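Q: Sequence in, structure out?
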Amino acid sequence: MNGPPQSVAGAAPARVPWGFAELFILSQTVLPAILILPGTQGMRLPIRASAFLLPLAAFVWWNINSEINVRPSRAQSWLFAVMFLLSVMLFHPQTPSFVGGLAHLAVYFAVMTPLFWAPAFVKSPEHLARILWLLLVCSGINAIVGVLQVYDPQRWMPAEFSRVALSGLGLGPVSYVGPNGRVIVRPPGLFDTPGSVAGPAAYAALLGLVFAVSAIPAWKRLLSLLFAGAGLAAIYLSQVRISLVIALGMMIVYALVAARQGRVGRATQFSVLAGSIVVGAFMLAVALGGQSVVERINTLTARDPLSVYHGARGAQLDVTFGQMLTDAPLGAGLGRWGMAGGYFGTVAGKGIWAEIQFTGWMIDGGVLMIALYVGALIVTAFAQYRVARAVQFSRLAQCGAVILAADLGTAAMIFSFTPFVAQVGIQYWFLAGALHGVAQRYGIEGA
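A: Exactly. Output:
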């Protein structure tokens, strides 16, 4: 590292042309969206796999062609240890299928590869801000479609849903009764699984509010505000309570970090606008979804938080650190849960149900797997906080605050979902890698 780039010294930074980073962000929305088209369910496996094959292909390209030398992030060593452990677990006697186990390992690796290659594609804070804007547009459109699917399902709801998601149970478990007795299916957005809009909607809410209080043209601020409102409304209408909690948590983290950066006015403006949008989006959701939306949200405060969590996903946590910790403290083999195991030959009777990431980690590598991956997440969070505190580089620090808040939201999903074998995990490591690469170009130690 030969010191910070010229732009840090005061010269105007050169505009980075559109490239693979932008196309990659677009692909993570466009590829799943193909599945909402009629007749595409027969191609679900290759379409779903393409979103994971793309980061693998980028990793190969980076190893062959990249000339950019960026110091590895501290999280990389943790992830190398994770991959080594998974490689050993591939030969565990309870791995039901070598092909299924190998596919499961490949999913893990595909999710984490952006941490390695993203620094080669994201060049500057301005480039990183553009990536975040593009992520907002993709997430915001996703959320708007989700709201429209409740408002006018005949026009906007997909003709087919994932047979994998419904599992023969029909739409009953993923629907609720709206105004005038109308049955409302939890909106999928630009995907084929009911309720799946809630994930991108949370990012639309955070990023929309961030850009709405930023020094950008007025039309962009208004569009950002629209995306933020649609994001929160889509979460309410999907009735995925954890996404609402995560979205609110991300907003709180961003406001606190912004205040810590000395941008108290911006943090106050953000907080006031966030409170207004939370209330306004709720009113819109109730108008579209009826009393069921109110009742669903009220369950968050009907009991203490631990009781609410235990009634939703806490039982899985009990099984993980109770029965599984006793029966398989060192893991129970690969390919016994998740998409890869389902598609690539988990032997009947050997599958294990995993709803949260802790359970998946315990199956795949036991307590050591949990320790290694959680360690990688903690190291990443501290590195991102260091960048956010580098206020001498204002634009980079602002990007750091946004990415810290967004990635902490993804990391929190390990208590309710399996983000690190899903596309949201790819996004996590892409943002982490992009921020690390830019920070290293600016000479920020520990990033």
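The radius of gyration is 22 Å.
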